[in-house]
Structure formats: structure tokens, C-alpha cells
């Protein structure tokens, strides 16, 4: 048991040194180590309990860190209950390493759930065929939507930036199967701007209605006829 605890402590020390610049993780690390040392002191190591505790604390820390990057709560994030309900008329783009990712020797995820998860490393995107696509989200709560955020990997990290989204529209939906949405505005993601761009909802009359379902409609990209890469979409507002 002492051997296992020693390994856990040593691994955690390395992990802490890697994460030292991310504030929320440091505090959670201290709590985890305190629990580990208490177990070791009593010659017990309930590893399953510790792992569950670690999962809960890291999940909470990720949420805090993720919100801190732009200072706004994301009601679409999967960690807190957000989900992808459908991708109407949108087909995943499956292909191995291509120009945009050759340097990193990685592959497209082609899983829409990546849109509601932290992380925008090259290749960690939902790639779909063509320049247009639709993705529907279920939020964790009913929300008066005030803004949305579209995030792409930094343009300096990829060779080909033409698959980045450009023009897009957002709709509020009455339910997951709604055929008609409430237009929340037309927006443009600027490739030369910050990788994380937040857009205030333009249609104030519609935004006074609360929604639990949202559709993101990509209308164009930056010139790639084969596929578009979406990295992260967030929904912000006031919880009902």
C-alpha cells in the first residue's frame, strides 16, 4: 500500500508541476493529496473512492477554468449536462491525415460532441462534408440566451485555414424536433481575429424568450469545398 501511495504521490507531483499555471487545478490537487495522505496514515487506500473524488474535483476545476477563459458560463457544455441532439442534413467528414493536420500526424474526430467539450487542439474538431451544416444542442437549463461563442484552433497552428467556419446563424428552438426556429441572428467568425469569439445576440425581442434547445447553422467556410471543421460552440445567458 505504501508503494502504491508513493507512486500516486510521485505521479501527482509531476502532474502538479505541469499544471502549476492553471490556478483551479492547484487547489484541487492539494485536496486530493490531503485525502491520499490521510488514507496512507491509516494504512488504507480506498483507491476507488479516491478516483471518484479525483474525477469530481477535476471535472469541477475544468468547468471553472473553461469559464474563466472568457468569463462567461457555458450552458451547452457536456460536463454539466449539455448534449448534441441531432445534426440535420449534415454528414461527418471521415478521412485520415490531410494537409491541415499533416504536421501533427493526427486525424479528425468527426464527432459532434467535441463541440461541447473543452479543447481546441488541431484535429479535435467536428469535421463535416461541405461548407454548410446544422447542429442542434440541448442546454443544461432553460436559458435567456444573451450571447454565443464560436471557437476555432489558432490559425498559426494549422497549415490550411480554409475549413474554418465563416458565416453562421443561430436559432432558438421550442423543442428538439422543432421544424421552425426563432432567428437569434446572423454572425461572422473572423479568421484573423481571436480564436475564441463571442457574439452578442442581435434579435433582442427573440432573446427575451427562454430556450433549452438551440441550432447552430453554418452557412459558409473560408473556401474549402470538401469539409468544414468546428471546434467549440458555447451558449451564454441567464438561467431561468
Key attributes of the depicted protein:
Jelly Rolls, 240 residues, 2 domains, 7-stranded antiparallel beta sheet, 4 helices, alpha+beta, disordered N terminus
Number of strands: 9
Class inferred from helices and paired strands: alpha+beta
Main CATH class of the largest domain: Mainly Beta
* CA gyration radius, whole angstroms: 21 Å
Strand proportion = 25-35%
What is the name of the CATH architecture of the largest domain? Sandwich
Shape: globular
Count, helices: 4
Q: What's the multimeric state?
A: single chain
- CATH fold name of the largest domain: Jelly Rolls
CATH homologous group name of the largest domain:
Galactose-binding domain-like
What average pLDDT do the residues reach?
78
**What is the H-and-E element order?**
HHHEEEEEEHEEE
Number of domains: 2
Low-confidence stretches: 1-28, 97-107
Q: Major sheet: size, sense and barrel closure?
A: 7 strands, antiparallel
Helix content: 25-40%
User: In angstroms, what separates the terminal alpha carbons?
Assistant: 49 Å
Amino acid at each position: 500500500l505504501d508503494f502504491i501511495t508513493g507512486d500516486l504521490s510521485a505521479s501527482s507531483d509531476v502532474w502538479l508541476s505541469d499544471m502549476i499555471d492553471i490556478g483551479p487545478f492547484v487547489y484541487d490537487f492539494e485536496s486530493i493529496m490531503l485525502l491520499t495522505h490521510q488514507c496512507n496514515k491509516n494504512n488504507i487506500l480506498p483507491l476507488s473512492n479516491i478516483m471518484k473524488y479525483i474525477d469530481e474535483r477535476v471535472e469541477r476545476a475544468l468547468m471553472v477554468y473553461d469559464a474563466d477563459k472568457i468569463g462567461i458560463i457555458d450552458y451547452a457544455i457536456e460536463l454539466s449536462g449539455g448534449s448534441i441532439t441531432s445534426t440535420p442534413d449534415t454528414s461527418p467528414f471521415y478521412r485520415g491525415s490531410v494537409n491541415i493536420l499533416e504536421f501533427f500526424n493526427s486525424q479528425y474526430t468527426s464527432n459532434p460532441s467535441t463541440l461541447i467539450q473543452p479543447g481546441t487542439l488541431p484535429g479535435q474538431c467536428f469535421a463535416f462534408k461541405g461548407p454548410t451544416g446544422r447542429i442542434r444542442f440541448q442546454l443544461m437549463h432553460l436559458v435567456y440566451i444573451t450571447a454565443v461563442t464560436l471557437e476555432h484552433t489558432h490559425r498559426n497552428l494549422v497549415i490550411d485555414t480554409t475549413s474554418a467556419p465563416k458565416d453562421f446563424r443561430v436559432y432558438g428552438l421550442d423543442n428538439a424536433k422543432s421544424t421552425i426556429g426563432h432567428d437569434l441572428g446572423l454572425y461572422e467568425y473572423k479568421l484573423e481575429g481571436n480564436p475564441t469569439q463571442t457574439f452578442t445576440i442581435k434579435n433582442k425581442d427573440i432573446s427575451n424568450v427562454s430556450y433549452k434547445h438551440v441550432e447552430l447553422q453554418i452557412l459558409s467556410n473560408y473556401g474549402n469545398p470538401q469539409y468544414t471543421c468546428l471546434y467549440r460552440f458555447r451558449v451564454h445567458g441567464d438561467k431561468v
